[in-house]
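Key result, reporting period 2: structure in, sequence out.
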């Protein structure tokens, strides 16, 4: 073990579980050994060598005053950085100790505007066993949260940069994933059980960009956590929303302990705890958040997301809030109506809206500034920003009161913070702070005159002492007839009189020479030395007093952190509301009528993002009690998925309190929106497998309720045709009969469209295309009824595959359908489950007589849906169309290339070929057939 400075470094490093240690050595923070290499790699620092007792160690350093940007860069890359400061020991030596561990979730000095959450998560099953586990390091009885048990989970989200602190209890694994995905925390600290739960850890790594950290298991213990919460928020908070749950309290307590322990000093900015129930918000599982591209596209870009399309906020805090509204839509109708009232009022008040926006453009981020005052990192300029932003409040009140907005919820937003308190604080800051204080806190000039009599006196004395010195050169010139005299000051010589060499011999006798330079000499006089002492004394006293007063002022602002946050929140709310109104006004959006009915009725609806870049064709949508399940058909690229996403986004926007892109919309509130998007899109991105598709479907079937909105964009496409259709069929029945959720289901299984004959609330719609003269025009219009043809062969036709091939394909398809049938299970309304048989060969339901044999799935024709896939396999092998027909292709096809294509087509096992392969096969066939048809081009 090396001794000396490197030894001290390594010792401290061993004390902490941080990834990197920055240790103060005089005017620098130094990194040694591995840490030096790491920092040099990450941040482009130069590495030198430090020898210590015969060995040599890599060393890198940054000046004391420049640590922050390096710290930020390291932490934003996911490292935990410990900072050790140097202090003087009693015997005059130096020692160092770790004062702070900066982690991704507790980084105050962040460089972007987004919220930055620390999440603590605790599973409810391990009460009272925390201590044991911490020692044994094993999960309790092998039971894990991800293993499907239903113990409640406590979760807390703390944003140290703004003081936001949210706590809730969740029901299980899916909710936890969804909630984590929603908040996208920078750091996740799992409780003692979860941190040993591999599935949990893996899911976090997969879903989130944040860092996983381990923390003292004791902090999650119920008693200790409850104590921490009481300490922070007072005894009365313990019974408030969310905290009646023990897991939630444990998560909250652990988060507080973690923030405290890492030493960022921002605990005080956690002024308020917001408990919420999972049922306050529309459920959006992680997949749905991704699919709907709320804050980023599936490719991970902000451009093209819903947020980016509608965001007109002008402040960082407003942007954060708008984002929160989108990812946490509400269920509370009254609250939504209030928000809509405000947006409505602002839509109609163009001039006022402009004025509000102009005022808000000057606002600083009060939530962030408040946190900086409590951590003590705020300088005078930060306080000036607070002062100037508080001053906007009365301006905004002016812009709202005595206008059309005066008795609307917009006015209430501004009435919420304690305005008198805000004014008093602002006046205090105005009286205290200099207009344009310097960046550094210790050089004076922070405060203005008239604030403190003692300070005024020091400033007076300082200035008159300076004045004597400032005018000295002139006086000396005159008194002694000297030319070339200047009076100046530097660190080593202090104040001096500098005389040019040519006249240096003429100086009076009381000048004492202190230095000879090339062209001049420096002198002092007794009086100058005396005055200098006075200046230095006063200067020091002034700086000291000023800094003391400044700290007291900052302390005072820190004590008002909650007030500053409130004003910040009000400004952010106004910004977000104004943004919604601006968008609604410019894009001609309409106020949705919120209802409690199970409906979604939209007239001339548009897709909020697509309409910005496309000449969009508006479409109607009607989902209600009698028509709760729409099967959406239409060729590829006709607009099915746009239509369905548009429905989900209109629902979501309405529950975010926004206007919606439609002429008219009646929106029955939902408890959750669930989506699963076509395997094709996802397969192309190499993300989805059939297993993932089925997991998503499973989650929807488990989670959705009669009050949910479900969007299914192709189901069963990732597998062979018969498996796929079987699953799609069964899922439709289940959603219609059991779950009864409002559902939009786009499918290429044309067979499903016949379900409308049998399932009472199923209806068909299709996206129309115009096929006149062999040309296909996408009309983008959604009409009632199914498409007239089935998907695959139809697309081949549309794509211009030669008629013989298409005709042949049609016959092959018929052949495959032969002797296939699916029973349909109907509603249980009226007591009995109705049954019917769908005959795949006829493409319709079989008539009356067949019904009897089907109920138990035992009839020859009535194979149960689930078995069809297996059957498909053997059928395709045994009586493949090619075998049955012989290999002869149609006699009138003479071209060898076309014949070869036909033969391949005949041999193709449709049941075993995923659609994505079919598409490329058809593409290749088409190429070969067209080439064969035009040989003359080469000759
Ligand atoms: P599908 O799901 O049927 O394959 P998409 O929904 O992906 O089709 O739409 C295909 C293309 O049509 C997209 O580029 C989309 O922007 C455009 N589109 C869809 N609906 C409309 C509409 N109503 N008006 C204008 N363009 C639309």
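The corresponding designed sequence is given below.
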């Amino acid at each position: 073990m090396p001794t000396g400075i490197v030894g001290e470094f390594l010792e401290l490093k061993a004390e902490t579980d941080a990834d990197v240690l920055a240790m103060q050595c005089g005017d620098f923070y130094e990194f040694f050994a591995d840490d030096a290499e790491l920092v040099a790699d990450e941040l482009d620092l130069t590495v030198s060598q430090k020898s210590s007792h015969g060995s040599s160690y890599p060393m890198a350093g940054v000046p004391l005053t420049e640590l922050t940007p390096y710290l930020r860069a390291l932490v934003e890359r996911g490292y935990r950085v410990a900072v050790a400061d140097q202090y003087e020991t009693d015997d005059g030596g130096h020692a160092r100790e770790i004062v702070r561990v900066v982690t991704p979730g507790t980084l105050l000095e962040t460089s972007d505007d987004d919220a930055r959450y620390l999440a603590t998560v605790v599973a409810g099953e391990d009460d009272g066993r925390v201590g044991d586990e911490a020692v044994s390091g094993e999960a309790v009885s092998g039971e894990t949260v991800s293993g499907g048990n239903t113990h409640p989970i406590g979760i807390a989200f703390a944003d140290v940069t703004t003081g936001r602190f949210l706590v809730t209890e969740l029901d299980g694994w899916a909710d936890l994933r969804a909630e984590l995905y929603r908040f996208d925390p920078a750091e996740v600290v799992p409780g003692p059980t979860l941190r040993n739960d591999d599935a949990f850890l893996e899911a976090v790594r997969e879903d989130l960009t944040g860092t996983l950290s381990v923390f003292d298991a004791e902090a999650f213990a119920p008693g200790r956590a409850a104590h921490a919460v009481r300490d922070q928020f007072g005894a009365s908070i313990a019974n408030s929303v969310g905290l009646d749950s023990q897991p939630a309290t444990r998560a909250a307590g652990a988060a507080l302990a973690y923030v405290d322990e890492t030493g960022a000093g921002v605990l005080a900015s956690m002024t308020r705890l917001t408990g919420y129930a999972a049922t306050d918000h529309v459920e959006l599982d992680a997949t749905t958040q991704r699919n709907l591209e709320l804050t980023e596209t599936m490719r991970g870009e902000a451009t093209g997301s819903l947020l980016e399309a509608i965001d007109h906020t002008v402040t960082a805090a407003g942007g954060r809030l708008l984002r929160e509204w989108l990812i946490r839509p509400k269920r509370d109708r009254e609250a939504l109506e209030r928000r809509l009232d405000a947006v409505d009022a602002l839509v109609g008040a163009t001039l006022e809206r402009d004025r509000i926006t102009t005022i808000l453009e000057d606002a600083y981020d009060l939530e962030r500034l408040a946190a900086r005052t409590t951590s003590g990192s705020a300088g005078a300029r930060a306080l000036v920003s607070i002062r100037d932003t508080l001053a906007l409040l009365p301006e905004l009140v002016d812009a709202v009161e005595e206008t059309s907005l005066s008795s609307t919820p917009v006015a209430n937003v501004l009435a919420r913070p304690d305005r008198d308190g805000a004014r008093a604080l602002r006046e205090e800051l105005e009286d205290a702070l200099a207009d344009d204080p310097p960046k550094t806190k210790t050089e004076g000039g922070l405060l203005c005159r008239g604030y403190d009599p003692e300070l005024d006196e020091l400033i007076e004395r300082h200035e008159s002492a300076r004045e004597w010195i400032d005018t000295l050169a002139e006086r000396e010139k005159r008194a002694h007839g000297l030319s070339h005299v200047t009076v100046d000051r530097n660190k080593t010589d202090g104040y001096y009189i500098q005389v040019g060499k040519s006249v240096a011999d003429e100086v009076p006798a009381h000048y004492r020479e202190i230095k000879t330079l090339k062209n001049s000499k420096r002198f002092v006089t007794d009086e100058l030395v005396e005055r200098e002492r006075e200046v230095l004394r006063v200067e020091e006293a002034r700086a000291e007093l000023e800094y003391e007063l400044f700290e007291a002022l900052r302390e005072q602002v820190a004590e008002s952190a909650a007030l500053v946050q409130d004003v910040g929140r009000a400004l952010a709310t106004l910004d977000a509301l104004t943004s919604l109104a601006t968008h609604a006004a410019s894009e001609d959006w309409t106020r949705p009528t919120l209802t409690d009915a199970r409906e979604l009725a939209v007239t001339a609806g548009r897709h909020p993002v697509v309409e910005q870049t496309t000449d969009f064709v508006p479409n109607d949508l009607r989902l209600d009690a009698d028509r709760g399940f729409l099967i959406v058909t239409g060729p590829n690229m006709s607009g099915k998925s746009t239509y369905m996403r548009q429905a989900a986004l209109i629902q979501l926007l309405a529950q975010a309190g926004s206007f919606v892109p439609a002429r008219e919309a009646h929106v029955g509130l939902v408890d959750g929106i669930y989506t699963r998007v076509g395997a094709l899109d996802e397969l192309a991105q190499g993300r989805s497998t059939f297993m993932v598709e089925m997991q998503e479907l499973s989650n929807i079937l488990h989670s959705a309720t009669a009050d949910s909105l479900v969007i299914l964009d192709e189901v069963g496409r990732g597998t062979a045709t018969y498996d796929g259709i079987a699953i799609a069929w069964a899922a439709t029945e289940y959603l219609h009969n059991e779950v009864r959720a409002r559902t939009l289901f786009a499918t290429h299984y044309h067979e499903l469209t016949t379900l409308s004959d049998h399932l009472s609330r199923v209806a068909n719609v299709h996206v129309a295309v115009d096929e006149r003269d062999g040309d296909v025009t996408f009309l983008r219009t959604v009409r009632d009824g199914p498409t007239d043809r089935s998907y695959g062969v139809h697309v081949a036709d549309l794509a211009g595959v030669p008629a013989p091939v298409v005709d042949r394909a049609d016959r092959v398809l018929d052949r495959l359908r032969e002797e296939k049938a699916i029973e349909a299970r109907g509603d249980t309304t009226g007591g009995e489950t109705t049954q019917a048989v769908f005959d795949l060969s006829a493409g319709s339901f079989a008539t009356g007589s067949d019904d009897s044999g089907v109920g138990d799935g035992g009839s020859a024709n009535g194979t149960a849906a689930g078995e069809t896939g297996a059957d498909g396999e053997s059928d395709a092998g045994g009586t493949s169309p090619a075998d049955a027909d012989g290999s002869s292709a149609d006699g009138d096809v003479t071209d060898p290339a076309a014949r070869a294509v036909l033969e391949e087509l005949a041999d193709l096992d449709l049941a075993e070929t995923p659609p994505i392969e079919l598409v490329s096969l058809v593409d290749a066939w088409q190429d070969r057939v067209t080439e064969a048809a035009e040989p003359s081009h080469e000759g």
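Residues 526-559 form the longest helix (34 residues). Residues 730 and 920 are 29 Å apart (CA to CA). This case is discussed further under Risks and Mitigation.
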